[in-house]
Amino acid sequence: MKTIAKLSLTALIVITLLFSCKKADYASSETTGDERTADSSAISSSAAVEPKGSKHKFIRTAEIKFKVKNVVKSTYAIENTVQRFGGFVTYTNLQSNIHEQIKTKISLDSTLETTKYSVENNIVIRVPNTQLDTVIKTIAKQIDFLDSRVIKADDVSLKMLSNQLSQKRGAVNQKRVEQAIDSKGKKINDVIDAENTLANQKEENDNKAVENLSLEDQINFSTITLQLYQNETTKQEITESEKDSASYQPNLGIQIIDALKSGWYILQAILVFIVNIWPFILLAFGGWFLYKRYIKK
Predict the structure, then answer these.
(1) How far is Cα 7 from Cα 13, in angstroms, rounded to an integer?
(2) What is the pLDDT of residues 230-247, one digit of tens each?
(3) What is the per-residue pLDDT across 175-213, written as a single tens digit (0 to 9) for each?
(4) How far is residue 280's CA from residue 274's CA, in Å, rounded to a whole number?
(5) According to DSSP H, which parts of 126-156 are helical?
(6) With contact defined as beta carbons under 8 Å apart, do 107 and 227 qualify?
(7) Is the separation of the CB atoms in 115 and 232 below 8 Å?
(8) pLDDT tens-digit readout, 256-285
(9) Contact between 62 and 149 (Cβ < 8 Å)
């Protein structure tokens, strides 16, 4: 009986421990899930998502700066995400900034080159307004550390209404000016003034129409500006050492032969120079002879 009691007690203890471990693992996984959800929601936003049938028109923009583990890989992932959700990239500037470069000679013909650099990329993307939050949440998976996040929603419904009303007024004025031109008869000056007024009115109407089209485009496609960077990276590579000029000098025998050739060329040049100035030498000799023969006496 004592043996059975001991076995039962041992089994109870083991079952209790197993249950406790399983509960702890569940709590740990739940905490991790909450942390991931918090990281994702840290940059997502549902601000100014207008309901169906709403008269409000929002231009939504986002600016996010964050650190990633690898800028190049994250850039490709973001570009794929943008394409998948019907957006497009309007600007990207991927570059490496060298902070320090050290060259250490490790042998007669080898040099260890150590480069410390950082990689960053500035990206501007445009995505459908209805996909803005989804794209931001997908981009959040690349974040290693979030520096800042700014999301704006500008209501331009009144601006668009103002442009439409201005276009209607312009159309009415345009008709009145056209009628006035027809009724002016042959008064050239009045016709010219009316034509100029009509041209200005048409230009103003066109500008309002183009402005509304631009606003519609900004409403339909939100703009996201991303600034990615990563920790400083160190790269080391062994390169061939540069030889100094002394390594390329010829041996002594060749230098002596070259010196003899140079001396012979110099002697030739002197003889040619003397031959070229023979008239001056002749005059100098004649002057000296006359001086000795007549003047000195």
Answers:
(1) 10
(2) 999 999 888 887 766 666
(3) 666 666 666 555 655 556 666 666 776 777 778 788 888
(4) 10
(5) 132-139
(6) no
(7) no
(8) 888 888 888 898 888 888 888 888 888 888
(9) yes
Find all residues with CB under 8 Å of 253, minimum gap 6, and list them: none
- Token code pair at residue 75: 């850039």
Length of the chain (residues): 297
Half-sphere exposure of 70 (CA within 13 A, CB side): 4
Tell me the DSSP string of 228-249. Answer: EE---EEEEEEEEPPPPGGGG-
- pTM of the full predicted structure? 0.59
Alpha-carbon 8 to chain mean position: 70
DSSP string, 7-33: HHHHHHHHHHHHHHHHHHHHHHHHHHH
Beta strand 233-240 with 88-105 is unpaired
- Token pair of 29 as six digits: 């996984």
Q: How confident is the model at residue 95 (pLDDT cuts 50, 70, 90)?
A: very high
- Whose CA is closest to 266, among 274, 69, 36? 274
CA-based nearest residue to 89, from 122, 59, 126, 120: 126
Exposed / middle / buried, residue 134 (Cβ in 10 Å: 0-12, 13-18, 19+)? middle
